[in-house]
């Protein structure tokens, strides 16, 4: 099954422009974050509670940088993609901050001059918009959404690893 499994990452920005950080402590966001941490722990995934009173409300800089880094190679993209998730969900870093995104990319071995050039050219933004439009055409309205193309099954929202595993095994036949 592993050799036949293909994962395609698509960017899905919830907001097309920067917005102010939002309250976190004592809100539904904190409750949701706590539920995510509890579910993730069962699968051995580290999910650190957001320790700040405010949280970023925009991920466009990270999405664009990931698309630019993908131009440098799939392996590098995977390292940056996972690094950005780790920065936000485990180390409580603000991935709306271009300096944090750049630090993650550098740590993964990205060519920062190429990253800067691709960001400046708009290549990252164009790729994010293209992904967003394709996702909307496929019926995606929220994140996370995982579409298992064989069978057309969509997993929307927070689901446990066993649900993903079952969907992949079902698709593999």
Order of helices and strands: EHEHHHHHEEH
Strand content: 5-15%
**Which parts are unreliable, with pLDDT below 50 for 5 consecutive residues or more?**
none
Q: Kindly, what is the distance between the CA atoms of the first and last residues, rounded to a whole number of angstroms? A: 9 Å
Outline type: globular
Task: Average the pLDDT over all residues and give the rounded result.
Answer: 89
What's the story with the biggest beta sheet? 2 strands, antiparallel
Q: Give the strand order of the largest sheet, numbering strands 1, 2, ... along the chain.
A: 1-2
**Assembly state of the chains shown:** single chain
How many helices? The count is 7
Number of strands: 4
What is Rg?
A: 17 Å
Helix share, percent: 40-55%
Structural class of the helix and strand makeup? mainly alpha
Q: What would you note in describing this structure?
A:
With 173 residues, the protein is mainly alpha-helical. Helices cover 53% and strands 7% of the residues. It is built from seven helices and four strands, in the order E-H-E-H-H-H-H-H-E-E-H. A two-stranded antiparallel sheet has the order 1-2. The chain has a two-stranded antiparallel sheet with strand order 3-4.
């Amino acid at each position: 099954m592993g050799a036949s499994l293909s994962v395609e990452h698509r960017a899905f920005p919830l907001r097309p422009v920067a917005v102010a950080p939002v309250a976190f402590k004592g809100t539904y966001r904190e409750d949701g974050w706590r539920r995510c941490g509890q579910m993730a722990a069962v699968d051995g995934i580290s999910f650190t509670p957001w320790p700040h009173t405010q949280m970023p409300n925009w991920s466009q800089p990270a999405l664009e940088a990931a698309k630019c880094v993908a131009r440098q190679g799939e392996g590098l993209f995977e390292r940056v993609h996972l690094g950005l998730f780790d920065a936000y969900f485990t180390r409580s870093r603000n991935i709306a901050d271009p300096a944090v995104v750049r630090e993650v990319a550098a740590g993964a071995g990205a060519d920062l001059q190429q990253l800067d050039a691709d960001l400046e050219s708009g290549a990252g933004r164009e790729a994010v918009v293209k992904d967003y439009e394709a996702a909307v055409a496929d019926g995606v309205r929220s994140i996370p959404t995982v579409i298992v193309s064989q069978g057309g099954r969509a997993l929307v929202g927070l689901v446990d690893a066993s649900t993903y595993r079952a969907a992949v095994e079902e698709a593999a036949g």
